[in-house]
Specification:
Shape: globular
Distance between the termini: 12 Å
Length: about 110
């Protein structure tokens, strides 16, 4: 779980500093992810947006570790990730590293 929050924070920071041609798509994914953290309604994310947000290396690693196809991973994450992030951020903020460590060691 700690790795997820580190990656989430890294992608969030990168998204804010980038301005290439793909920035509109990346901005949309970032706004979507921020909706899961905030206290309002969760915006949906499709597999293509999630694939762009996570990147090839992370998806390949997940596929290798789980034995699932990239398409199945994207399908499951598109469905379950917004709910999971929402539940792990009930106060509308990303947990600190200390909080994330406590969750993974429990």
């Amino acid at each position: 779980m700690r790795s997820f929050w580190q990656q989430f924070g890294r992608r969030h920071s990168e998204r804010r500093s980038r301005k290439p041609a793909g920035a509109v798509s990346t901005q949309r994914s970032g706004d979507t992810a921020e909706s899961w953290v905030s206290t309002g309604d969760n915006k949906p994310i499709n597999g293509q947006e999630l694939s762009q947000a996570l990147g090839h290396d992370i998806l390949s690693e997940l596929a290798a570790k789980t034995g699932l196809s990239r398409q199945e991973i994207l399908s499951r994450l598109s469905r379950d990730l917004p709910k999971a992030v929402n539940e792990l951020t009930p106060n509308g903020s990303v947990p600190t590293e200390k909080q994330a460590d406590a969750w993974t060691s429990a």
